[in-house]
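Regression test case RT-17, inverse folding.

Input:
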């Protein structure tokens, strides 16, 4: 099977928080997932999921033999928006799954976090495990040093500071994040661990951060190298200061979000296991 590389850089904003198609081929469908939306669910009473939204847009792509009708090759949290990839046939699904398992996929996220991060970059290498106090609730995770942390596993995240400023009048920092591992809630846990919880993260702010309209975490770019079709897809930055709802006012720019930012953060991840 021939392999080609697809690069998609769309400037279309997802202002109405609905599913936007970023890329479609015979092998993959890549969409911009809205925030506060689950991928799929075994609960038949839950009517609003990404699965149902994609089903409505592309009924011809539904595979009735699959439990959730589509091959979702990776996941995003309910609160997280941005790039998510669906495979449209079993060959593409296998190739994409293998790429993730062999760490040939690169995922980059944007976030606004509380406080000013004084360093230009941070490597976070704290193990992440299950919080035994909330196994039946939000499936909250915790870092290995916690007395309530069960089965912690090695976890690595690179953080690059883009801008410092204020959000709703309080100190905040805009960052580019690149997880080297794929633990549940990894970016949220790691940001909380270094004392800069993601703005709007109700769970990891100990249920205190209720004012923001959303959790400020966005899957910005996915590079998926695989044996069927190489993908490089970007979902536009939803946290720009030009959007009044964000209440974000940058006062100090350290790194423009361009190729040099990705080069810089890739260098940070080179020696991470």
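Golden output:
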């Amino acid at each position: 099977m021939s392999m080609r590389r697809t690069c998609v850089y769309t400037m279309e904003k997802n202002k109405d928080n609905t599913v936007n198609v970023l890329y479609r081929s015979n092998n993959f469908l890549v969409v911009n997932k809205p925030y506060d939306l689950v991928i799929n669910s075994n609960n038949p009473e839950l009517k609003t999921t990404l699965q149902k939204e994609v089903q409505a847009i592309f009924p011809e792509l539904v595979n009735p033999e699959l439990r959730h009708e589509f091959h979702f090759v990776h996941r995003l949290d309910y609160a997280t928006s941005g790039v998510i990839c669906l495979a449209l046939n079993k060959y593409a699904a296998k190739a994409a799954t293998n790429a993730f398992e062999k760490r040939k996929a690169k995922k980059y996220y944007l976030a606004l976090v509380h406080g000013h991060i004084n360093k230009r970059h941070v490597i976070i290498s704290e193990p992440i495990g299950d919080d035994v106090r909330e196994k039946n609730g939000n499936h909250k995770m915790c870092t290995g040093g916690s007395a309530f942390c069960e089965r912690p596993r090695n976890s690595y995240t690179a953080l690059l500071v883009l801008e410092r400023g204020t959000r709703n009048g309080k100190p905040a920092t805009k960052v580019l994040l690149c997880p080297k591992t794929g633990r549940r809630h990894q970016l949220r846990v790691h940001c909380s661990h270094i004392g800069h919880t993601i703005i709007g993260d109700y769970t990891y702010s100990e249920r205190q951060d209720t004012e923001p309209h959303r959790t400020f975490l966005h899957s910005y770019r996915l590079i998926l190298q695989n044996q069927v079709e190489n993908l490089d897809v970007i979902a536009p930055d939803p946290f720009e200061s030009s959007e009044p709802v964000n209440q974000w006012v940058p006062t100090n720019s350290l790194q423009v979000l361009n190729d040099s930012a990705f080069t810089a953060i890739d260098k940070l991840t080179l020696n991470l296991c």
